Amino acid sequence: MTFLSFILAQCLSALSQAAILFFIACGLTLIFGIMRIVNFAHGVVFMLGAYAGYTAQMLTDSFVAALILAPVFVGVVGAAFEWVFLRHLYGRRDGGAYLLLTFGLAVVLSELIRIVWGTPPLSAGIPDALRGIVLILDQPFPLYRLFLIILGVASAIAVWQFLERTRAGLLIRAVSQNPEMVHALGTNVNLVRTGVFGFGCALAAVGGVLAAPLVTAFLGMGTTVVIDAFVIVIIGGMGSFLGSIIGSVLVAFVQVFGAYYFQDLALAFMYFLMLVVLVIRPGGLLGKEE
Amino acid sequence: MLKHQSLTRRRLLKGAAAASAAVFAPPYLRHATAATPIKIGIPTVITGGYALLGSHIMRTCRLVKKQMDAKGGLIGHPIEFLYQDTQGDPAMCVRKCQELVERDNCRIFTGVVVSSEAAAMLPKLEQWNAMFISHGNGDGRLTAELFVPRFFRANTSAPMGARALALYLKDAPQKKFIAIASDAAWGRSSNAAFEEQIKKVGKELVDKIFAPVANKDYSPYITKILQSGAQGCYVALQGDEARAFYSQASQYGLSQRVQFFTEIVAQADIKVLGKEAIGLIGSSRYPITYDIPQNRAFVEAFRAEYKNDLPDWSDGEMYQALMILFAAIEKAGSPEPMKIVTAMEDLEVTSVKGPIKMRKCDHQGENQGFVVKVARTDKFPEPVGEIIKIYPRELTTPDCRSASYSN
Q1: Would the CB atoms of A220 and B243 count as touching at under 8 Å?
Q2: CA torsion angle for A255, A257, A260, A265 (degrees, to 10)?
Q3: A263, A265, A270: which to substitute to probe chain B, counting the most B Cβ within 10 Å?
Q4: Which of B224, B223, B217, B252 minimizes the C-alpha distance to A144?
Q5: How far is CA B312 from the centre of its chain?
Q6: I need a surface site. Which of A215, B226, B261, B267 has the fewest CB within 10 A?
Q7: Closest chain B residue by Cα to residue A141
Q8: Is B219 an 8 Å CB contact of chain A?
């Protein structure tokens, strides 16, 4: 194994990890950007996506179907939650109510998942088309991780284009800046918020479906990943879509290379990175200071 | 000055009436004091990362309760299991045990999942006037430097599992090994024991990797293993971490280059990993295929009760711990903790894992060592660990109050 092939393979590993982190962090930052809500249930939503993806794959025998159906299902659940519960809290100055409500959602969802799917871990496996390895110079690299990188890049571009070039994206950006003006211009701001919350949950669910072949679907799988997502959003800047991409890549690289070279300190590096960013730019790399 | 008490007719009639009531009272009234349940606290993980192991413990306890109820209880008392959710957190575990002691007067504990939870309980046992028998806590220190008289370990410890595997590897073709372990009490203990043992059998440990608890991405560690030139890889990971590692390792084709050996072969992992688990060799804390009457009866009863499941290592170890506990209570004739402790010392029982002796000097159960290889069989609907070697307990149990071996 040459040093070049090793570095290349590690970079690709980091990018594949960044792809999964991006889906979770992007959803979290979109929700915060529009609604100023820190969604404590985001990790459990990710977990729900993994379980829903497993069921969809078992029913349809198709990983592609799971990638479509699971996020749609979880997005609907998220939108329904926003419609029924969250919107009644808008206008409150006290942010504690949102934290408690989303924390409550996390607890209830976790238990529902345990009741519906049980405690044993579940895995539908990788589809045959994505099994196998490719050789990066002389280093084996899983085909599935290459797929993650490609899907992550394509999705990031798609979401970016959606936000920048479509009318819906324009409305979302407008609501994030001045919801009262948007409302005065005749747009149903509540509907925009519902849609964004559902979309954010759907993105997290995509992350769950993609992560399941790597780690299996298991209870508690959202706990550590939501911490990673919060760190990414803080590093990238709360509410910044581009910040979530940069943050995901930075965190993934720190985790992969930190684990390889400094295994005892691997966990600490991510938080050290966050500390450095906050000292230099308190609002995150691309966020606004409030 | 004492009053003179004379036996009057009235007193005589009262006494006779009382004696008659005691003899001829309805059975449920006479049985009232004898029916006081023997309470066994199960502070286990019901929610959280190790919930699967907690669910195994609880299902085995339910099976045992059913069996004991059918027998009429233990020394005339019904058995009652009191479950509490510790979420795998040592501080929470101690708090829940405290509640069980104060609220329910529960003085017997078992079914604790995480070794660090067990370690947190040990110093409190004296204060609680309780005893604790481990069913599955692997940290070698629990019966060594952390030893307390009210604690017993019925199960195979991490050093014992590593020892059995190292004895097997003595004749294995692989010469160079690398180890990957969970960066937690059990993982470090297991790795330390393996490192000591593998060197004794003349093999080389080229590197050791400690992955953070709840780690998700094993790609950097898989790269290290690939780079190391090792022919064998010792895996001291369990549960979600083990499954993530094996899943990702198979995606790299690692099992074609390196033979995996593991300290714990778990049926839950085999079921999820499917064909990716075939060929895995490991030390087994409870081999489902062990062909003795006690184990056949247990497996049969388990499968009759839980039709879609096979007993995992945690089920077998839990069952063994309870059988030892009940044998001690029968010997003591009482559920009083210190009487159980005295009765359990040097107690010999034949359980689902064969003969076991609860050694007096450190309260470690002397278990045989089993090495298994995961394979498909006709007897079971999913792959299981088939026994390829059994080592006598004299070889696999460490020195007294130690996690090391002088032989």
Answers
A1: no
A2: -50
A3: A263
A4: B252
A5: 11
A6: B226
A7: B252
A8: yes
> What CATH number does residue B388 fall under?
3.40.50.2300
Gap between the Cα atoms of B311 and B303, Å rounded: 8
Instruction: Judge if B247 and B376 occupy the same domain.
Output: yes
Q: In the structure encoding, which two tokens stand for residue B254, read together?
A: 């690692």
At residue B232, φ and ψ (nearest 5 deg) are -130, 150
- The residue with tokens 């006779």 is B16
Residues B177, B140 share a domain: no
Order of strands across the sheet with B354-358? Answer: B348-351, B354-358, B365-366
**What dihedral do alpha carbons A252, A256, A262, A266 form, nearest 10°?**
50
Give residues with Cβ within 8 angstroms of A286, minimum separation 6: A236, A237, A240, A242, A243, A246
Shared domain for B152 and B205, answered yes or no, is: no
Using pLDDT thresholds of 50, 70 and 90, give the confidence band for residue B2.
Answer: very low
Q: Do B48 and A221 touch (CB under 8 A)?
A: no
Q: Is A109 left (phi over 0), alpha (psi -120 to 50) or beta?
A: alpha
| Number of domains into which chain B is organized | 2
This prediction has a pTM of 0.83
- What's the CA gap between A8 and A14, in Å, rounded? 10
- Residues contacting residue B199 through CB under 8 Å, at least 6 positions apart: B205
- Mean pLDDT score of chain A, rounded to an integer? 90
| H or E element at residue B61 | helix B51-71
- Which domain covers residue B387, as residue numbers? 159-289+370-396
Host H or E run for residue B180: strand B176-182
